[in-house]
């Protein structure tokens, strides 16, 4: 993947409005990438300037906090940030994707 792919992912994720979420695959479909590629880009960047993006608005396809695999503390941070933005959770603790999913349009 090129630096341009990284830049496109960060720029696109910045457009997800507060209170809305997308999954890795949906972000990828908008950019011509796979969900795995998006996850890899978001999880492995070392460019400090690129860390200034709302990473917490991108979830697993089922509303799960897949970032917990990387660091369980980040799961709590992600959940807290989403709840503070008004993102609805289901009883099982996952995000209610029916209500919170953003379709990529303003």
In short:
This protein has a single domain, classed as Arc Repressor Mutant, subunit A (Orthogonal Bundle), CATH 1.10.10.10. The chain is mostly helical and about 110 residues long.
Question: What do these coordinates show?
Answer:
- By secondary structure, the chain is mainly alpha-helical.
- The chain has a single domain, classed as Arc Repressor Mutant, subunit A (Orthogonal Bundle), CATH 1.10.10.
- It has five helices and two strands; from the N terminus they run αβααβαα.
- It has a two-stranded parallel sheet with strand order 1-2.
- Helix 2 (24-31) crosses helix 3 (35-44).
- It is globular and about 40 Å long.
- The termini are far apart.
Q: How is the secondary structure organized here?
A:
Blueprint: H1 3-13, E1 22-23, H2 24-31, H3 35-44, E2 58-59, H4 72-84, H5 97-100
Parallel strand pairs: 1-2
Helix pairs in contact: 2-3
CATH topology: Arc Repressor Mutant, subunit A
The overall pLDDT average reads 88
What share of the residues lie within helices? Answer: 40-55%
CATH structural architecture: Orthogonal Bundle
Broad CATH class:
Mainly Alpha
Number of domains: 1
What fraction of residues sit in β-strands? under 5%
Contiguous low-pLDDT stretches (5 residues minimum) are none
Order of helices and strands: HEHHEHH
End-to-end gap: 28 Å
CATH superfamily: Winged helix-like DNA-binding domain superfamily/Winged helix DNA-binding domain
Instruction: Note the total helix count.
Output: 5
Helix/strand structural class: mainly alpha
């Amino acid at each position: 993947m090129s630096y341009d792919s990284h830049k496109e992912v960060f720029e696109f994720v910045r457009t997800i409005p507060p209170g809305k979420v997308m999954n890795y695959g949906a972000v990828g479909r908008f950019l011509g990438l796979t969900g795995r590629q998006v996850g890899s880009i978001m999880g492995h960047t070392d460019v400090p300037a690129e860390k200034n993006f709302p990473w917490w608005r991108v979830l697993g396809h089922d509303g799960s906090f897949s970032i917990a695999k990387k660091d369980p503390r980040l799961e709590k941070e992600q959940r807290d940030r989403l709840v503070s933005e008004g993102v609805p959770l289901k009883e099982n603790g996952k995000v209610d994707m029916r209500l919170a999913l953003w379709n990529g349009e303003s």
